[in-house]
Design goal:
Blueprint lengths: L6 E3 L2 E3 L8 E6 L11 E5 L2 H10 L3 E5 L13 E5 L11 E4 L5 E6 L6 E4 L22 H9 L9 E5 L7 H14 L4 E5 L8 H9 L5 E6 L5 H8 L4 H14 L3 E8 L7 H11 L5 E6 L5 H4 L1 H4 L7 H13 L4 E4 L3 H4 L7 H17 L12
Parallel strand pairs: 3-4, 4-5, 5-6, 9-10, 10-11, 11-12, 12-13, 13-14, 14-15
Antiparallel strand pairs: 1-8, 2-6, 3-7, 7-8
Amino acid sequence: MKPLALAGSAIAVTGATRFESRMVLRLRGPRSVPVIDDRDGALIRDEVDLSAARLRGFKTAVFLEGASLSPNAGEFDVVVTLGERFCHLGDGDIIGLDPGTLRLRVLYRRASKHNSFLVTERCNHYCLMCSQPPRNVKDGWIIDEIASCIDLLDPATDSVGFTGGEPLLEWRRFIALLAVFRGRLPETAVHVLTNGRAFAAEEVTAAWAALGFQRLTAGIPLYSAVDAVHDYVVQARDAFDDTVLGILRLKDKGQRVEVRVVLHAVTAPRLRETCAWLARNLPFVDHVALMGLENTGFALANQDLLWIDPLDYQADLACGVDMLRAAGVNVSIYNLPFVSWIARSGISPCSRSLIGRTDTYRNATAALSGDAALGSS
């Protein structure tokens, strides 16, 4: 399977000032668009598209290489030429483009059910298995770019994720962004992957709850029932205490919370203990996700420390799931090769039913492993 190109460089950009800030463009099929926004670019694949773009009065045209057409900058204010690797782009997709460097990222794919926006690369954790290793960079502009494309998203979008880094490092700006999002797409499920420590502050939790966004969920990792183990995994002192306090504050205000437990050689040996602790102390959370390790980012660098065969903890996983379900906790399993070992795992029938249920919940939560992510380029 060939992965979709979601970042790279344009072949050429003409008509945009070299030192102009990043552009946000929504690609439109020029033949059937009812209303044209100034940020819309006609997606030109053939002569029919070109004629329709001229007729409809598009100011920006996006040509795909290999369309057997010669882009004529004189016909449009701005002309962008993309390589064939971006031929998967379609009507309603959104890209962020730097005219000076020609670097671009696909911010949103209308046809995808798993869109997510990277809010920042900065983080106050340094997790051993982080799939998006943090960088100490000035990337506050990303929130502005997300805000500029919210009103271009399809209102029928089922779900969107926000991730990082830690999205709540600039919590006032981020919560203001969520307020804009709620106003534009009130029926879209939103999942924010956060380490949860910001919610230890009453001011932050109150602002989050004041959004009144019923379809908003905070996905918060909690890697162990032992504070020292959790703090070691995230490489931050007092992280466990802040995270648990944040979860309690959120639930006290009636907010949706998902707890995530990533399974590897540091966390899996205590999985039964962790699930028992969650069932006893946090049975009121909305969902618990038990997740296999993603073999990317820091997980590759720390493979000798983190790797464990899922077969080695299958019995603990089965027991943990049953404990959570017995406590009435909604629990799902992700990123594990069930086909190869589920029949030998000893998981009870009610636990096995999770396999079929996971995709349903994914519509609201798995956008964070999605096709498109907004970030620096």
